[in-house]
Design goal:
163 residues, alpha/beta, 4 helices, 40% helix, globular
Length: 163
């Protein structure tokens, strides 16, 4: 039995991720994913017999790699779980801030910030691609505080352009 899950993007409606029962799903993300992943894991196992791994971790993102490095964590996860054929990502709630890349300060918003952030996301996508995995990158929800929501919308815009 194969299990297909629809993915929807404005640019390619109708694509599906197809998983065999012995393949796995990796969930990666911040505290938002900590809420979503357990429910998805339970449904995947109960309804489709698909096992999954929940790597979600609070207070993380792509900006503070000194605290937690998602690109490297995803790379390692694909080594540890060679049957993973789908990566589901939900992160960024902690990311709309300036950060340092080496000695260079990346200010949000700026083309340099966008490029550095997109490169970190691309690292995760490349790790998935090398492992033969598909990726579903979930956009961030609307946030209550308007200035914070504007920065979150900016992250979603980068995601749409680069992910």
């Amino acid at each position: 039995d194969l299990h297909s899950f629809p993915t929807r993007r404005s640019s390619d409606l109708g694509n599906y991720v197809t998983l065999h029962p012995d393949e796995q799903v990796i969930f990666a993300g911040d505290s938002l994913m900590q809420s979503v992943a357990p429910l998805m894991q339970k449904a995947l196992l109960k309804e489709q017999g698909i096992r999954s791994v929940n790597l979600s971790r609070h207070s993380t993102g792509l900006v503070n790699t000194a605290y937690f490095n998602w690109p490297l964590a995803v790379e390692e996860a694909f080594k540890k779980y060679p049957k993973a054929r789908l990566l589901v990502v939900l992160l960024g709630a902690n990311d709309p801030t300036d950060f340092y890349e080496g000695q260079a300060r990346r200010r949000l918003p700026s083309p340099e910030w966008d490029a550095a952030y997109a490169a970190r996301a691309q690292h995760m996508l490349t790790a998935a691609q090398k492992a033969g995995s598909s990726v579903i990158w979930l956009g961030l929800p609307i946030m209550r505080a308007q200035s914070y929501n504007e920065r979150i919308r900016h992250l979603n815009k980068i995601g749409r352009a680069h992910v």
